## 1
Amino acid sequence: MPDFDMTIGGERVAGRESFDVVNPATGQVFAAAPDCSDADLERAVSAARTAFAQWRTDERGRREAMREAAARIESHARDLATLLTKEQGKPVREAMGEVLQASEWLRHYADMESPTEVLADSAHARIELSRRPLGPVAAITPWNAPVGLAFWKLAPALRAGNTVVLKPSPYTPLTTLRIGELLADVFPPGVLNVISGRDPLGAKLSSHPAIRKVSFTGSTASGRKVAIAAAEDLKRVTLELGGNDPAIVLEDADVETAAAGIFGSAMTNVGQICVAVKRTYVARAVYDDMLAALSERAKSVRLGNGLDEGVTHGPLNNRPQLDRVTDLVASAVDAGARVVAGGATVEGPGYFHAPTILTDVTDEMPIVSEEQFGPALPVLPYDDLDDVVARVNASPFGLGSSVWTGDVERGGDIARRIEAGTTWVNCHLYLLPSLPFGGVKWSGLGVENGVWGLHEFTDMHVLHQNLLPGNAWS
Ligand code: NAD
């Protein structure tokens, strides 16, 4: 089995214990990852703390190291993508896109300016606002897009002058560990530490007193625990959590375009995307056509091992997630839902579930009201637009959302009424390093990306120079 090490203080650390990593396309263990001990966690945090003193002062060095890191990742992109497919399951072409996203985000933030702002400059006072890094920060990532989401955190954190301890999900630690090894001589020792372990390691890291911020992406349940742990000593937190994104299809939408866009964003990575379409509300006039168009697409996917040529959709990442999706579909069917495409797991090895389209569903069924995070899309008709906006907003989640229409102005008017971090009109899942991304309600706290994402890794400092003789009150 190939070896994977943690990177702590610039050194490769094998760890005393390890845990197995399974290839979801085969269901077989294919590698092991180090299980970080308490002592190694202490070393990682201490290395990040020591490195912070110098790293925060060297803005030019930070930009250069980030550009070098981007190039290093690119030059190993093929191997990294293959590894990502083996541990995560997505088709290798998508894995390649995710790996290259790391370089894109690094370059974007390396080029980003964050100048000191002059708030007042008069005969009375000069007041300026600057942004300061926080110190050692924790970055904790889920298993659906471990590389891309890691760099949504690392790039702004490092650019702002913080040092990082990064912990990937135990289901998908390997590509992140490999990237840590590859970048060990790009950043000064201790600037980027990568450790691996099970969920309790995340809890220990997020409650560690030397960690000044936790940037967390994962489930709402774990995000709550992170917030509670961080509250103890008022660490900063950014929480990117679950979603239950609605798509609303108006009666004037082009059915084929809407079906292509909705199916694509609902089923990419077999639905394991926080901001995938997870429930679709369709105007009664075009409901039958939409259902048919979505079903046709579901029936035409090529499900298989993401390493194989021509495969369009891979397995779910892990057994519990496969079981969850299977149970949600079964419980919907028991309650009266009808399967129009897919509907079942695939016999044989691996964690495969056919892309599934469901009709005759209600808002009360868990497949609609909860986050399925898998390839099962409920499609519901509506008659009244105000009513559907209310139903959409009744969810405790508020991550993404979309409106599909032939009239973008009208789409914009409806979009403004939706409670979500982002509402797209005639697209979904369109993410850029320059745009803020985050959720409202149970979907999160704070944002990632853009200058707003950079600022989340800083505290503000106001410098107020009084230019009048005496003080302001004399
Ligand atoms: P998860 O919450 O189980 O795990 C995420 C990470 O947190 C893992 O590294 C895990 O080891 C760690 N962790 C678990 N318990 C912890 C604790 N108490 N303290 C600190 N860390 C802890 O989530 P998952 O199952 O890996 O990912 C799927 C979820 O992530 C879905 O709900 C999905 O919507 C969400 N997600 C959100 C976004 C977003 O940007 N909003 C992006 C991707 C995924």
Note: The pocket of nicotinamide-adenine-dinucleotide is lined by residues 140-144, 149, 167-170, 199, 202-203, 206, 217-219, 222, 225-226, 240-243, 274, 371, 373, 399, 439, 444 (CB under 6 Å).
## 2
Amino acid sequence: MYILGMESSCDETSASVVEMGDGVRRICSNIVASQIEVHRLYGGVVPEIASRAHIEAISRITYEALDEAGITLADVGAVAVTAFPGLIGALLVGVNFAKSLAYARKIPLVAVNHIHGHVAAAYLSNPALEPPFLALVVSGGHTSFYRVDSYTDFCEVGGTRDDAAGEAFDKIGRVIGLPYPGGAALDRLAYEGDPRAISLPSPALSGDTLDFSFSGIKTATLNYLNGMEQKGLAVSFADVAASYTDKIVKAITQKTELALKKEGMKTLVLSGGVAANTHLRASLARLCEKMGVTLAMPDRSLCGDNGAMVAAAGYFEYLAGNFANTSLNASASDSGL
Ligand code: KG4
Ligand code: ZN
């Protein structure tokens, strides 16, 4: 069946048609209208501007997604929309648009948890992947471990107590002059520096916990940069990128090893925007090889927010009979509706 997936939780408006069925997981179209250029002027996402930009783009990209897939609304078996978590004004644009479409055309509607969407991106790139597995979602808003018992049952077993890894990358990226969002540029710059050049604290909390805290490493890096400036010493931004990335990647890898052991899982799914990070992908690949664990990741192009991941997650909600109706609301929080 064809699922129309809609995503508007942050700064990308996206619509996608995905064909899902027995042994079929196919992306027919995945249109992403990014607002990055607009928000770059402010060094971060401005919620009100995001909502307005979603409104301007959503109708156009929906019809573009249908056209590119070569289908019409009459062929759509379900409309799936991200309902939480995210920026409330941004989410409401997608939710209201999807509700109207579903109501007017009598198409079943399903609400999708954005985090489940990120994990579902891995199903599209790994045709044989199925639960149970351990999912690590690393994005601008999350750094969390989930035990995924079925396509729709997630249990959070660890996470960050303050900032997310993506936020931490973006923050230091901005301070060293990289354009917003700094994550991808910092990833590239890290190859040019020495990961042992600067001593930084680990974001992995000590002990048996699966939790992280990124505020310490952020502050230590800012203090290092300020200290060097005060002393009139030159800073190698490549060394900063390499040392910072190395500490974060090592911390995530260390806690992933612990999480896999604690949960007794033989498959790991890495997803979310930061799953595009090449250092993290390589480090987790080494860990999984060492532990005899299967690693499933979305293609790098499917790590950021997109409608295809929402459609894929929506398909499993549809199969589970979890339908929404015109009373569907959006929610900013992780716990949802
Ligand atoms: O999942 P996502 O698109 O949006 C949220 O749900 O938050 O994640 C966006 C985050 C941003 O912080 C961005 O800098 C980061 O993903 N990101 C990366 C890379 N590509 C995107 N971080 C590190 N390395 C990358 N290659
Ligand atoms: Zn996301």
Note: The CA atoms of residues 253 and 283 lie 7 Å apart.
## 3
Amino acid sequence: MSVLISPSLLAADFSRMGEEAARMEQCGADWLHIDVMDGHFVPNITLGAPVVKCLRERTGLFFDVHLMISHPLQYAGDFVKAGAQMITFHVECEDDTAETIRAIKALGCRVGLSIKPNTPVEAILPFLPQLDMVLVMTVEPGFGGQSFMPETMPKVKALREAAPGLLIQVDGGVSAKTIAMAAENGANVFVAGSAVFGAEDPQAAIRQLRSIAEPFAG
Ligand code: DX5
Ligand code: ZN
């Protein structure tokens, strides 16, 4: 199974978002991680579907949209129309999980389900057969630049054991120092904001993250 690196646009210069997205493609990113926050599910507001639509015109990168919003069911269609190729929402949101998964798939989009650090893995196990990806948050969602929480690793391990072929994404505090731990436990999709956008050479940073994680991917 190969490793995917998904730089998080949250750490980009928002006044130059189109160029930053295109730059990630040139730097060898596999996906582009787009963090959507509604100021309700998390205490921060970022961007909505109209911005994703504009970004779609600037890059061919796979759009990995992370919805940190209370009502994904209401907005998923807008993001699919705007060009999202994977929509990940939170099991802790206010909408029905099974219904939201079905709705996103019916739109012809891949679907991921995410859990916050304090949510037990059991909350998502029943949905695994319907999912394209699980996102294990390795920080409390809401802000970039936080420290990776190693205590979330047993969840990654349990998920890898439960679903050997699943895409398992980790998001938050992923860097050259922490990626090996996540990969060793079974993660294969890595979101990195500050570690890529904060690097002097983002291309080298992506290459380094990939080379550390790859040996664990088997
Ligand atoms: C946090 C977001 C992350 C964030 C990661 O709520 O979901 O995607 O951008 O940023 P870093 O890699 O800086 O922790
Ligand atoms: Zn994210």
Note: The two ends are 6 Å apart (CA to CA).
## 4
Amino acid sequence: MNKYLKNVLSEVKKKNSAEKEYLQAVEEVLLSIEPVIDKHPEYEQIALLERMVEPERIITFRVPYVNDKGQVIVHRGYRVQFSSLIGPYKGGLRFHPTVNQSIMKFLAFEQIFKNALTGLPIGGGKGGSDFDPKGKSDGEIMRFCQSFMTELQRHIGQDIDVPAGDIGVGEREIGYLFGQYKRIKDVYEGGVLTGKGLSYGGSLARKEATGFGLVYFMREMLDNAGMQSLKGKTVTISGAGNVAIYACEKALEYGAKVVAMSDSKGCIYDKKGIDLELIKEIKEQHRGPISEYLNIHKKAEFIERKNEDSPIWEIKTDIALPCATQNELTLNSAKKLVSNGIIAVGEGANMPCTKEATEYFLKNNILVAPAKASNAGGVATSAIEMSQNSMRYYMPFEKVDNKLNNIMVNIFTSCKSASEKYGLKNNYVAGANIASFTKLAKAMQAQGIV
Ligand code: NDP
């Protein structure tokens, strides 16, 4: 292994030994850019890698709020401003009880590379809290969001840092956060948050963008391998949130048959094909468990989740789209999918396949669309939302969707060219890392030692 790379990796492991998700994300990137590092010994002199793996700033803060019983509850808030190299920090906010510094850092680190791939001027950041919005009343969610923004507003701005949604943060939460920002700052600064509602500065097609973008990338990858896109293929999609729902919508539009979706409790398997309108009603309208699907479709099955291996990956499928959370697809699940004849995996969630699962897929010549490329449509459309806000202008749905499609085609082409340039044909995991790293390294060299 390249000596410089080895030293940096060992130093990162020493300094961040308790942060397993962060180490996993860094290791994946560093190991796959080895051929580039070999060609550029000058990077060591300017500590390029050391600077790339150290966040510019991490902010943690107290978030107290009063629940409906009148009790004061305290949570921890985070914002990791990892890199402003190519634009203002940009990345979502996650509200989920598992949120910790390691998860925030891994997500912010991934975001730097993803944002570079979009070709748009956006840096990398991420934030959130260990607050669980599940089961909370609207009033509780609003008070929590207001408290969160009371501190966050000191650190963000449309040219500084632009948060958006992620797990547990959708249009409702963004609305409360935006309202509080406006109230404290006394300014209408549309571009300070993305994923806004359409009535006050949101962009058409932003809600659909991550899921649609994932399927556009998958279409390119399959076409390129001579596999005739998604038509007639069976698809399983984990999650039933924003990314999963719109990936399902586009896959259905392309003639695929989606047979299973899931949430944190388990998965539903409907041999006839998933009724997406019902999923939307359950998840988008009354935020219920996915098992409610069986109230209408009595012949569908609900398979409860019993351990870390989600039952959805037991189901035979041509294409798997993990769209729930990190490390949700393990080596065991990968083995099962391969033995069942899978042809492609498209990561909608961030880092949903474990390192071992990804390696297993690649070893078995399964096409893998890596998250930082295949789910970049969400942040790309957020950047389009920011430009509409700056122009005081709204673009029609088709125009935004066309731009998204073009961006996903360009991302696919960059990943393909980078993988082929280094003799790694069809390895889009390496391709995505190499293409984005190359761009970031150039920007870093150009800006001096900062
Ligand atoms: P949502 O909160 O809308 O949905 C998340 C879904 O995943 C829910 O169905 C949830 O189930 C399920 N889920 C969450 N945690 C777990 C878990 N530990 N085990 C099993 N299932 C789980 O989030 P999004 O759809 O916005 O985000 C999903 C993924 O996509 C995340 O990794 C996010 O970082 C990534 N992503 C999102 C983007 C966006 O634009 N929204 C952009 C790029 C990436 P339940 O309802 O039971 O909690």
Note: The longest strand covers residues 72-83.
